[in-house]
Write a structure and sequence with these properties.
Distance between the termini of chain B: 39 Å
Chains: A alpha/beta (416), B mainly alpha (292), C mainly alpha (334)
Shape of chain A: globular
Number of domains of chain B: 1
Oligomer: heterotrimer
Largest interface: A-C, 58 and 61 residues
Structural class of chain A: alpha/beta
CATH class of the largest domain in chain A: Alpha Beta
Structural class of chain B: mainly alpha
Number of helices of chain A: 12
Largest sheet of chain A: 6 strands, mixed
Number of strands of chain A: 15
CATH superfamily of the largest domain in chain A: Response regulator
Strand order of the largest sheet of chain B: 1-2
Largest sheet of chain B: 2 strands, antiparallel
CATH topology of the largest domain in chain A: Rossmann fold
Helix content of chain A: 25-40%
Distance between the termini of chain A: 82 Å
Shape of chain B: globular
Number of strands of chain B: 2
Radius of gyration of chain A: 23 Å
Order of helices and strands of chain A: HEHEEHEHEEHEHEHEHEHEHHHEEEE
Strand order of the largest sheet of chain A: 2-3-1-4-5-6
Order of helices and strands of chain B: HHHHEEHHHHHHHH
Radius of gyration of chain B: 19 Å
Helix content of chain B: over 70%
Strand content of chain B: under 5%
Strand content of chain A: 15-25%
């Protein structure tokens, strides 16, 4: 009789562990004698925050990944040496939870037996994913996390987004030119609000480094962090108002940007220079905020206004998804391109070889500024940023670097 | 001037907080159970309001007139089908039951409506009113006024109508009500429905001010309503209004004096402290004064 | 043998259960020994045991003491962070931090529990929601409040590499400890006292049961083990962030597992853990929607609360007398 429940318990354990049978080490197929060491279908996987605060961004990345592989598969597959290789991409929803994403990536590796990994979105989640990739010694190519904290102790992951400190530094460089043209005051009093994360802290540090290097140009008169996904920023904004700064620089996620900017306008606030870090021109934000988001400056990793054949070709292709071609889409596309490029170059999906190729190659023909991506020894790329400014009627112009600018920035922001 | 603005801001926020909490307080008063599904009802009401706005352009404040009766019915159904069966058990049981219902609501909404963050943006979403140096957001003012109307309406109902008095009697002594010939079961059902109707109204109103999603509607605002009803005394409606104001002021002061992130921490520390030190809330203290 | 069983039924059942715990533990511990590359099985069994540890620890306060805690993730997260900080800052071996993490959480439980466990009815449950959230916010803002760099706020703590197989063994050990503790509670005077408080606090107090002390101790024990689970997580996953560790959804899972599995029973939480981890793994893959499992749990919870308060254990226990004796909590005729 005791057996009844004992059997039930053991049976339960067995059923639960049942899927383990199919797991085990992932070994590349084929023997050493064949030149091309790649199966007919390569399995890839990624997890994205398809629901929750970052869902609109995640959907754009998902569409971009899927479009890339659909195109490739429709054309017969990737030409690897003498054979054509197709790709099977699996994307799951991690609900914006880092622990869940880590567990998903582990499942991809041990249960779904994927060959290589594509990256997810948002720094905290990506940091966890990269840990898993390193633990299982699996190459991971990502374009959704920019903080350098992701790459600490990292061997197996590469990320195409340049650091946030560089983002801040780029904006300060732009401001210098405006000060020299007498459009912005010198020194510029800056109020900084940053999200309570490494992303935000690096943003602040970039600005503070700039202040230290040129104290006659920049003065940080206020800085404070805020919690992510906040609903009510009025108390913070009132403090910013009291700081009487010339410029207000914020590092926030898109959802928080929309909320804060709405409340900023409600409070009737004004600054000569306003930026939300890498946020600003997102279609979702422009639709929600309308003219409240005019004249906001942003520094991003890519913009569809950039010149060049690579960009043009990609834009034509991307139209198919119907999404807005924002940097998230370009980033996802580049990751897919680089990963498949590595397979093509090495004629293999052997993890160590792919790793070596990823790190040693200069990935030309890139959509990103400079046209080429090269990973440093920690795995992070260091391309330049482009800057945009929102203009009325939902438009925007490129204002930096000078040689690709499509218009002159309106500085200072006009008083309504 | 900062102080005045802070107080006004607190007042407006208090209106929001109070609206969220009336339903919880009413149900606890009458049935002595904590309606954990309050958050779920608010969330579903918010979605209903969103779809009404999206399809018909119906203003959220007007939606209240549609949403509140709808969720009255929902609440009555929940009471009859589920809650009634566990009323005589330990409080733990009803707690877990309503918790389960909350989970079903949240998971169901995520599954069928999508887990994205939605936002209702009525035409006046960015309009402001200026009183001298002080800036007041128009939508918050409207929501506050609606909250006051609801408060007055609720108090009138509870004090002037037979049903309202029956509900209050039930809150005081269930057995005596039976003796007095009140149909306890029917009144309980109505009370519960009224509680969920209030939650529904709150959900509709709040869409005018904040974005929402199925899993954490209004983020930590939800949990604040617990703080409020505990602070106000779980059984007193005007107490709720006062408690909401106290909480709002406490938060605003904390934020102005120190860091904005501590805003939410304040409410929860307050919750635990009040539960331990003043389980009857402010209302109990006032009652004690009156007796003494 | 049957004679022995008849003469000392309680003792025999207890020994049998202990035997089962060890059997399961040894079986799982042997997995990495038998097949070094059985990564998937190791992953599945780690999380299985991990959930079982958490569910059983919650059961100590929620099931035996009858006080529902909706903020248990606070202890889980606390354990994880204590380990994370001791490991990354002071370079302690993470597994050696387990007792420290447990102790810190237990002390926190005493601090929080002493005033709140006195509360009647659902007040304690509400208080725990507050505690859970406050703890999360505290850890998120710790660095800014005290001006240090310790918890790294929302970004989370990045931890060094550690051998997952060692963590696997450690998890097995902790699982055995938790199960033995649970059985000891149920079989002994401590459990009897808790059960009495659960039934009728005033009567228990009149009978001389030190209600406050017992309840606080139950909460502390519960917190201790939940924290060790957090430490194990930190050692294996090498990354902690407050949203994941202290999130309300973790607290929800901690309530769901033991309640669905069987509140106040020894094996109920284990059943709940098995159900939870297998549903997580299987259903979300098949349907590719992470919310279907949550819907299933919610429905299960409602059904169980209304019809079978002892959950899965109750359903199984309806079978036979022995199964009933094994799975159900104490009743009058034992």
């Amino acid at each position: 009789m005791r057996g009844l429940y004992a059997v039930a318990l053991v049976a339960a354990f067995v059923i639960a562990a049942c899927g383990g049978g199919s797991g085990g080490g992932t070994a590349p197929s084929s023997s050493a004698a064949v030149t091309v060491n790649v199966p007919d279908t390569v399995k890839l996987a990624a997890a994205l925050p398809l629901t929750g605060a970052d869902s609109s961004i995640a959907k754009i990345m998902k569409d971009s990944y899927e479009l890339f592989f659909k195109q490739l598969n429709d054309a017969g597959g990737l030409q690897v040496g003498s054979k054509k290789v197709k790709f099977d991409l699996k994307i799951e929803d991690n609900k914006g939870d880092a622990a869940a994403s880590g567990q998903l990536y582990e499942k991809f590796i041990t249960q779904d037996n994927v060959d290589l990994l594509l990256g997810g979105y948002n720094t905290t989640i990506v940091t966890q994913e990269v840990k898993v990739a390193n633990r299982y010694k699996m190459p991971y190519v990502g374009g959704g996390g920019a903080s350098s904290s992701i790459y600490v102790d990292n061997v197996w992951a590469v990320g195409i987004l340049a650091s946030i400190e560089k983002l801040a530094a780029t904006q300060l460089d732009f401001i210098k030119t405006q000060q020299d043209a007498n459009k912005l005051p010198k020194p510029l009093k800056i109020a900084v609000a940053y999200e309570n994360s490494s992303h935000g802290k690096e943003f602040l540090k970039g600005i503070q480094d700039g202040e230290k290097a040129a104290p006659d140009r920049f003065k940080v008169v206020f800085n404070e962090t805020f919690d992510l996904n906040g609903r009510d920023y009025t108390s913070l904004l009132n403090k910013v108002k009291d700081a009487n700064a010339d410029a207000y620089m914020i590092d926030a996620r898109v959802a928080d940007y929309i909320t804060m900017q709405t409340q900023y306008k409600q409070l009737g606030m004004y600054h000569q220079y306003l930026t939300y870090g890498p946020r600003g021109p997102e279609k979702a934000a422009r639709d929600a905020l309308k003219d409240s988001s005019d004249y906001i400056t942003a520094a991003t990793w890519f913009d569809s206004l950039m010149p060049g054949d690579n960009v043009k070709k990609w834009l034509d292709t991307f139209k198919a998804t119907g999404d807005s071609p924002e940097w998230y889409a370009a980033s996802a596309w580049e990751c897919a391109r680089i990963l498949t490029g590595a397979i093509q170059k090495g004629l293999t999906i052997d993890k160590q070889k792919i790793h070596d190729i990823l790190f040693s190659t200069s990935w030309d023909g890139s959509l990103f500024p400079g046209g080429s991506i090269k990973f440093d020894k920690t795995g992070q790329a260091n391309n330049d940023y482009v800057m945009t400014q929102n203009t009325p009627s939902g438009n925007r112009i490129l204002i930096w670097p000078k040689d690709i600018a499509t218009g002159t920035a309106t500085m200072p922001v006009p008083k309504k | 001037m900062r102080l005045v603005e802070a107080l006004i801001s607190a007042l407006l926020v208090a209106g929001l907080y109070a609206t969220m909490s009336y339903g919880l307080a009413l149900i606890y008063g009458v049935m002595k159970i904590i309606n954990l599904a309050n958050a779920g009802v608010m969330m579903l009401a918010a979605f209903t309001t969103f779809f009404l706005w999206q399809s018909f352009g119906l203003d959220p404040l007007v939606s209240v007139l549609v949403v509140a009766p709808l969720f009255f019915v929902v609440g009555a159904l929940i009471e009859v089908v589920f809650v009634r069966r566990v009323l005589n058990e330990k409080p733990v049981v009803s707690l877990l039951l309503l918790f389960g219902i909350l989970l079903v609501m949240q998971a169901g909404a995520s599954l069928f409506l999508g887990g994205d963050v939605r936002s209702v943006r009525p035409v006046y979403v960015q309009e402001v009113i200026r009183l001298g140096d002080v800036v007041i957001a128009y939508n918050r003012l409207l929501v506050f006024v609606a909250g006051v109307i609801i408060l007055i309406g609720l108090e009138l109902f509870l004090r002037r109508t037979f049903l309202g008095r029956a509900i209050r009697a039930l809150a005081q002594d269930r057995d005596a009500c039976r003796l007095a010939g009140i149909d306890v079961r029917r009144v309980s059902m109505i009370a519960f429905g009224l509680g969920t109707a209030l939650a529904g109204a709150a959900g509709a109103l709040l869409t005018a001010v904040f974005p929402f999603d199925p899993v954490t509607p209004y983020g930590t605002l939800q949990l604040k309503s617990f703080t409020i009803i505990v602070l106000g005394g779980l059984e007193s409606i005007p107490g709720i209004a006062v408690a909401a104001f106290v909480l709002a002021v406490a938060e605003n002061l904390t934020v102005t004096i120190s860091k904005p992130q501590l805003e939410n921490l304040v409410s929860f520390v307050l919750l635990v402290v009040v539960l331990v030190v003043m389980p009857g809330g402010l209302a109990a203290i006032i009652r004690r004064r009156r007796i003494a | 043998m049957t004679a022995l069983l008849a003469r000392f039924p309680k003792r025999a059942l207890l020994i049998g259960q202990i035997g089962l715990v060890f059997a399961v533990a040894i079986a799982i511990a042997l997995i990495p020994v038998i097949d070094e590359r059985s990564f998937n099985l190791q992953r599945i069994t780690f999380f299985l045991l991990w959930y079982a540890i958490l569910a059983s620890s919650w059961n100590m306060i929620g099931g035996y003491a009858g006080q529902i805690s909706f903020g248990h993730a606070a202890f889980l997260g606390m354990g994880a962070y204590v380990t994370g900080i001791l490991w990354s800052q002071l370079k302690w071996d993470p597994l050696l931090t387990l007792p420290a993490a447990g102790l810190v959480a237990a002390l926190y439980a005493v601090l929080v529990g002493a005033p709140t466990l006195r509360l009647r009815g659902p007040y304690f449950a509400i208080a725990t929601i507050g505690v859970g959230e406050a703890t999360r916010l505290f850890f998120v803002n710790f660095d800014d409040i005290f001006g240090v760099t310790l918890t790294k706020g929302v970004t989370g703590i990045s931890l060094p590499t550690y051998d997952p197989v060692t963590v696997h063994y450690a998890t097995v050990v902790v699982f055995v400890l938790v199960m033995l503790t649970t059985m000891w509670i149920r079989a002994g005077r401590f459990g009897l006292g808790l059960f009495a408080i659960n039934m009728d606090r005033d009567a228990a107090e009149t009978a001389g049961v030190p209600t406050a002390r017992l309840q606080v101790f139950a909460l502390a024990a519960s917190a201790f083990f939940a924290a060790t689970a957090g430490s194990l997580y930190a050692a294996r996953q090498q990354f902690l962030d407050p949203a994941s560790m202290f999130g309300f959804d973790k607290s929800i899972a901690l309530v769901l597992m033991p309640v669905v599995g069987g509140l106040g029973t020894v094996w109920g939480p284990v059943f709940g853990a098995v159900l939870y981890s297998s549903v997580q793994d299987r259903i979300s893959s098949i349907v590719n929607n992470p919310y279907l499992p949550a819907l299933i749990y919610g429905v299960l919870l409602v059904v169980i609360v209304m019809f079978e308060p002892l959950g899965i254990a109750g359903l199984l226990g309806r079978g036979t007398k022995y199964a009933r004796a094994l799975l159900m909590p104490k009743d009058g005729d034992e």
